[in-house]
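User: These chains co-purify. Model them together.
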Amino acid sequence: MAAAATILHADLDAFYASVEQLLDPSLRGKPIAVGGGVVLAASYEAKAFGVRGGMPGRLARQLCPHLQFVGGHYQEYQRLGDAAIDVVRDFTPLIERVSIDEAFADVTGSVHLFGPPVDMAQMIRSRVSEEVGLPISVGVARTKHLAKIASQVAKPDGLVVVEPETELDFLHDLPVELMWGVGPVTKERLAEIGVLTIGELAETPGRSLERLLGRAVGGKLGALAWNRDPREIETHHRARSVSAQSALGKKPATAEVIGPTVRHLADRVASRMRAKSKAGRTVTVRVRFADLRAVTRSVTLPAAISATSILAAIAADLVAAALDDHSDEKVISLLAIGVSHLENDAALQLELPFELENEERRPGTEKGAARWVLDRAVDAVRDKFGRESVGYGSVALREGGSVPDDFRELAEKEL
DNA sequence: TCTGGGGTCCTAGGACCC
DNA sequence: TCTGGGGTCCTAGGACCC
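Assistant: Joint model of the three components:
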């Protein structure tokens, strides 16, 4: 006997744009976009003109001349996103929060309390609408993959239930790009062999898919097309990497540009690691050139680090190495720093005495330890007085950035 | 269409060890 | 000295997701 459809996928519609329309009633019914240089979210009125998330602002304006750019209520995004997901949490503790505006829920054990899953989905939708004021779409199915597709089909502001008996009928008429894991490249590769729908994908031999897309992607898509989705709800997962990047427009690849940027990024990454009591062994940098081609350089250390100055020094070396290998490139458009191979750093969890002695006055103290103490001191001051109160001499960097730091803070928040 | 920021996972080749 | 096979780690790049 087939299991019942008890997985919910709840997804707020056009989230940032809906929040802006909630906060400012004069924006309701109008084409708006959140963002500036790039569209972070578009209202459904804007989507009707072809405006999409991730689209350059200039293009969006061409498509929709009356498009109004709004935004900046980042605290509200977090608050309202949490409030909506908390409504789902009232029905089950088995929640997997995917992002600020989206979560899976397993309500198998809640049926005896709240009735069938479709009733719970409807209650969630009306409660989010009434208590939070935002439209939310819900998909209900037996697996995560189907529930996710169902919520996409349900949008905007809808509910779709996929009963176990109708799963393949539901799935096989849909275009392949609705599948989890099919992006632009995979869609194009499939189109080249005449595969446009999930049904056509299901009919394609597994060997052909693996040859075309690689073993992992081909195997996974083949399984999903036949509705075999082994994924379970994961209520918590730990971070595997921490990174930060900064788009630079077009800047000369000089020490004056690279030095401050690397320090700023290293500061962001390292302070976030310390806040989570993490340290990492692998440092990766990414350098993007004027033509948007990007290269990465990485190094794996014998011991994990989390000190800003050490990370900055290693990252600077890696950037220099990458530029050395591409000495014909004179202009860069992006720098990124990441740290992976994360470990829990027990030492970081200690409350250390708040002292700022310099290295010379601490005989026997290794430089790394002194730097680490300094970093912890900076973290503590920032906790008290705010992020801008102490810097590493690179605060003047912000003028070119198109995405406010508040938004970055939001994106990096533990969900 | 030349575009942000933070992530995850996969692939392929090479080094190294047993 | 040469050779085989398996496993693991590292590095660079790429696709994808929100």
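Chain A has three domains: 1-162, 173-225, 241-412.
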